[in-house]
Design goal:
It contains ten helices and eleven strands. It is of the alpha/beta class and 293 residues long. A hairpin with a 7-residue loop joins strand 9 and strand 10. Helix 6 crosses helix 7.
C-alpha cells in the first residue's frame, strides 16, 4: 500500500519554485508577491495563513498578511481588495475563508481581479476551467492533480468518484479528472447528500476523492480492494488526550481503509500540503502573466 505523502510531493514542488525564483532574482527581477487577508482570529484559518506565509518565505516569494477585525464591515474589506487589485507590486490575492456572517463570500470572490485570483474561485476563472482554457485552478484540486502526477497514479479510463460538490473542491475536481489532461480522462461520478446507494457507487470506484467534511465517513466496506483514496477532509475533532485538545481527522477512516486501498493520502500530511503547493504555483503563474504584459 502506497502512502501518498504530501510532504514529499509538496517538497518537490517547492524545490522547483525555489529554483525558478532564484533565477528571477539572479536576473535582477522582482520576486513574486502574494497578499493574504485574514478576517478575525479563527484558529484553523490562523494556522492555514501562517503556513502559506511561511512557504512563501521558504521559496523566496514576497508576502503580505493583512489582518482585519472580526466585526469589519463588508465595504471595508472590499475597499482593501480594490487597493490590492490596483497595487502593481501584488501578483496574487487570497482572502482566507470562511468569512464572518456579515460579509458575502461571493461578493468578496467576485471583487478580486481575476488576474490576481490565485485561489481560482472567481467566476471568470471557473468558466475558463470548465471550457478547458488556461486559468488558475482552485488550489486544492490543483494540489491533488500535482500529487497524482508526482506519484504517477494511473487515471486514464478509470472510474473516479468524487464525494462532495463544493465549488472549492468537489466540482472543480470532477472537471479536472474528466478533462483531457495527463492525469485526467477518468469517467467521473460526482456524489452528494442526495446520492442514493452512495456506498455501492463508491465500491465501483478506482479512485475516490472524499471532500464532504464528515470525519471518518468513508469506511472499508465502501472501498473496492486496490482503489486509490484521496482524503480532502480536515476537521478538528475534540480529543482531551491530545496535547492541543483536538486532533485533525479526515473524511476517510484511515486505519480501516488503508488495509484495502492500493494508495491513500494521510491526514494530516496529505492534501493540505498540496493545496499550498497549488497556491504557490498559481502565484508564480500570475507573476509571469503580469510580467509578460
Amino acid at each position: 500500500m502506497l502512502i501518498l505523502d504530501g510532504k514529499i510531493a509538496s517538497q518537490a514542488v517547492r524545490n522547483e519554485l525555489r529554483s525558478r525564483v532564484a533565477s528571477l532574482v539572479q536576473a535582477g527581477k522582482r520576486r513574486p508577491h502574494l497578499a493574504a487577508i485574514l478576517v478575525g482570529n479563527n484558529g484553523a484559518s490562523e494556522t492555514y495563513v501562517a503556513s502559506k506565509v511561511k512557504n512563501c518565505e521558504e521559496i523566496g516569494f514576497a508576502s503580505s498578511l493583512i489582518r482585519m477585525d472580526e466585526q469589519v464591515a463588508e465595504t471595508a474589506l472590499l475597499d482593501q481588495i480594490r487597493q490590492l487589485n490596483a497595487d502593481p507590486a501584488i501578483d496574487g490575492i487570497l482572502v482566507q475563508l470562511p468569512l464572518p456572517k456579515q460579509i458575502s463570500e461571493q461578493k468578496v470572490i467576485e471583487a478580486i481581479d481575476p488576474a490576481k485570483d490565485v485561489d481560482g474561485f472567481h467566476p471568470a476563472n471557473v468558466g475558463k476551467l470548465v471550457q478547458g482554457l488556461p486559468t488558475f485552478i482552485p488550489a486544492t484540486p490543483y494540489g491533488i492533480m500535482l500529487m497524482l502526477e508526482y506519484f504517477d497514479i494511473p487515471t486514464k479510463g478509470k472510474h473516479a468518484v468524487v464525494i462532495g460538490r463544493s465549488n472549492i473542491v468537489g466540482r472543480p475536481m470532477s472537471i479536472l479528472l474528466s478533462s483531457n489532461l495527463p492525469k485526467g480522462n477518468c469517467t467521473v461520478t460526482l456524489c452528494h447528500s442526495h446520492t442514493p446507494n452512495l456506498a455501492e457507487v463508491c465500491r465501483s470506484a478506482d479512485i475516490i476523492v472524499a471532500a464532504l467534511g464528515k470525519p471518518g465517513f468513508v469506511k472499508a466496506n465502501m472501498v473496492k480492494p486496490g482503489a486509490v483514496i484521496i482524503d480532502v477532509g480536515i476537521t478538528r475533532v475534540t480529543d482531551p488526550t491530545a496535547a492541543k485538545g483536538f486532533r485533525i481527522k479526515g473524511d476517510v477512516d484511515y486505519p480501516e481503509v488503508s488495509a484495502v486501498a492500493s494508495a491513500i493520502t494521510p491526514v494530516p500530511g496529505g492534501v493540505g500540503l498540496m493545496t499550498i503547493a497549488g497556491l504557490l504555483k498559481n502565484t508564480l503563474q500570475a507573476y509571469e502573466q503580469r510580467e509578460s504584459e
